[in-house]
Amino acid sequence: MERKFLNRACGLSLALASLMPLQAAGSLPVNGACHCQDPENILNNNHMKAKDTVSYLFGFSTASKLFGNPYQFDVESFLQGVRTSLEGKDCGFSNDEFQRIVTQWQQEQREKAQERSLQNKVDGKQFLADNLANDKDVKQTPSGLQYKILKKGNGKSPKATDKVLVHYEGTLIDGTIFDSSIKRGEPISFPLNGVIAGWTEGLQLMEEGGEYMFFIPSDLAYGDQDNGPIPGGSTLIFKVQLLEVNPK
Question: Which band of pLDDT confidence, cut at 50, 70 and 90, is reported for residue 248?
Answer without folding.
Answer: confident
